């Protein structure tokens, strides 16, 4: 049984528009991104001293698929520092019934992880909320980490 976290939504926009929005990581996830996010290579994300990660973009298939590999990760609120490390984030884009379906899967993000509740809550907000808004309204809501962290009672040092 695949326990990795997955979510999806459908929009009226074209697969090409969806692909462009996914790769505009600063537009839906965080403005605290270092590096280029729309070509093969590496970028870094961080939120205060709470979360930082290094992401390798391993696959870019225009209008179809984006794959990120987490090469390094740090959370200040979990005991197991290997959580997220060597996991993959996969965005799959497909035409279905005249709409474009966007399927997000964080392969390896499983319910046994200490971060599972906060991570799945975060991805829900960023994918089904912010990314969807960026695609459908032209503007996402990046940098929502503060609300998520507060809601889950995570302390910054």
TrEMBL record:
It holds the Pfam family AHSA1. Residues 14-132 form the Activator of Hsp90 ATPase homologue 1/2-like C-terminal domain. Belongs to the AHA1 family. This is SRPBCC domain-containing protein.
